[in-house]
Amino acid sequence: MIRFENVTKVYARGARPALDAVDLEVERGEFVFLVGASGSGKSTFLRLVLREERPTAGKVFVAGRDLSTLSTWKVPHLRRQIGAVFQDFRLLPNKTVFENVAFALQVIGKPRHHIMTTVPDTLELVGLGGKEKRRPHELSGGEQQRVAIARAFVNRPSILLCDEPTGNLDPTTSVGIMRLLDRINRTGTTVVMATHDDEIVDQMRKRVIELDNGQLVRDQSRGVYGSTR
Amino acid sequence: MRLQFILSEIGLGLRRNLSMTISVVLVTFVSLTFVGAAGLLQLQIDQMKDDWYDKVEVSIFLCPSDSDAPTCVGGEATADQTEALREQLESEALEPYVEQVFYESKDDAYVAFQERFADEWWAQGVTADQLQASFRVALVDPEQYQVVSDAFTGVTGVEEVRDQRQVIEPLILVLNRSSLVAAGLAAVMLLAAVLLITTTIRLSAMSRRRETGIMRLVGASNLFIQLPFMLEGAIAATIGAALSVAGLWFGVRYLVEDWLAGEVQFVQYIGTDAVWTIAPILLVVAIGLAAVSSVVTLSRYTKV
Fold first, then answer.
1. Residue B67, SS3?
2. Kind of pairing between the strands at A82-86 and A65-66
């Protein structure tokens, strides 16, 4: 589903690479933790998958497409197959929960009847049934993150990228979010989650990829957060 | 869904930056009014040229018996001199310039004179001998007056070569200059309009960075993201254009058709239909302004 072939990313000429000759493959339906200290290259990895950045060297394949040859005007189509969730939720404060989720479908031109059926289903899935009319500031952090996940998942992407989704949440709430991500993973969606949360990684026992200074230092199935904390 | 969504986005953007929207409308209004005024003046000038240049002719006045002109020391122009002049006018050298030559003898001049001043008591006392014979020359291109003038000025038997165009030339010059001034002001105002529209679109794009960020993330197409901003600029500019067309229409209707046409009657004036002639141009300029501004701004602020 995601394949990195010897990928190097250098932001500024002469600077230390953010990613250094990374080779890895994530299969369809996998759940992968991406761990490592700040600045280890986790976010760069996610940005490369979303094609917000292009690699300096090497090739990135996502959902069968070679991103180095993907023309700019096809990038939106790539992104429709990828959901993204962030630490800071990125919800629209002046829209309701329903509108926030519907927004993701409206802007890619989905018809109204499709939105009217899909959005309530997705809100039900993330456990926000009955809160459609609330605004983000009326919700708890965990609920806001559920809205963000609903928005990322409402178009049923084949890949869900999560950039420290539990970074702003307390442990109990985080567990709830992880259960939700696990459930989404079970529907066949590939989930890649960058995180600092060792407890979660240790509990889930999923594949762990560790980056250190841009280099892939560990790729372990059913792994733990590790000692190089 | 899409259309409704885009329209609501546009409405939101226009209202959020209401004061900027109004200033865009006003600046395009003023700048396009100058553009339009320059265009209308040019139309007026063209019309006057069309009107008059067909009628004007070069008059070569032959010496009367009592002229003080140095070329007339020999007294009244003789038949030989007259014939020589006619031959020269019809010669090959002048053929490309001269369309038609009409000889007005003293008697012809007398008839025309009596017709023109038939109601005047003093005209009765004028005799044909007091009048002047002349050649009336219609030119192929009225601008080429100088050629004919050079050929006959100073020739014995010719008192004076007069171009009727010289009467209207100053007026056309004034109008031409005014239209240049209007065009210059228009250029400055258009520049201001482009800068203002650019700033407005930029503000609008920045105030909706959150939305556009999410749009890009979930895979909205570039066009879909940028269209609301483009249309905002285009709508504001189009309103400005509409206002300027309205302003010009009222200007022509009340200033030219009602007032000027009554005061100064020897000129054929343009009417409000001329405003409709230049209205599409103004509209195109307005939309062009908005398009240029959008492309310049959006390529930087909402790129993928």
1. coil
2. unpaired
The two structure tokens encoding residue B177 = 């200059």
Q: Which CATH architecture has domain B57-163?
A: 2-Layer Sandwich (3.30)
pLDDT at A229: 45
pLDDT digits (tens, 9 = 90+) for B9-56: 788 778 877 888 898 899 899 989 988 988 888 888 888 877 777 777
Answer yes or no: are the C-beta atoms of B269 and B256 closer than 8 Å.
Answer: yes
Torsion, CA B20, CA B21, CA B22, CA B24, rounded to 10:
90
Q: Where are the domains of chain B?
A: 2-52+169-301, 57-163
Give the 3-state secondary structure of residue B280. helix
Q: Is the dihedral of CA B103, B108, B109, B115 positive or negative?
A: negative
Cα-trace Rg, chain A: 17
Residues of A in contact with B219 (CB under 8 A): 75-82, 108, 155
Residue B72 DSSP one-character state:
G
CB contact under 8 A, B217 and A50: yes
Q: How far apart are CA A89 and CA B210, in angstroms?
A: 11
SS3 state at A30: coil
What are the tens digits of pLDDT across the range B150-204?
888 877 788 888 877 777 778 778 888 888 888 888 888 888 888 888 888 888 8
Residue A154: closest CA among chain B residues belongs to which residue? B218
To the nearest whole Å, the CA of A227 is away from the closest chain B CA by: 34
Inter-chain contact A76–B222, Cβ cutoff 8 Å? yes
Q: For A168-204, how does the pLDDT look when each residue is reduced to its tens digit (9 = 90+)?
A: 899 999 999 999 999 999 999 999 999 988 889 998 8
Enumerate residues 118 to 157 of chain A having a beta carbon within 8 A of any beta carbon in chain B: 151-152, 155
Shortest alpha-carbon distance between residue B212 and chain A (Å): 10
Q: Where are the domains of chain A?
A: 90-156
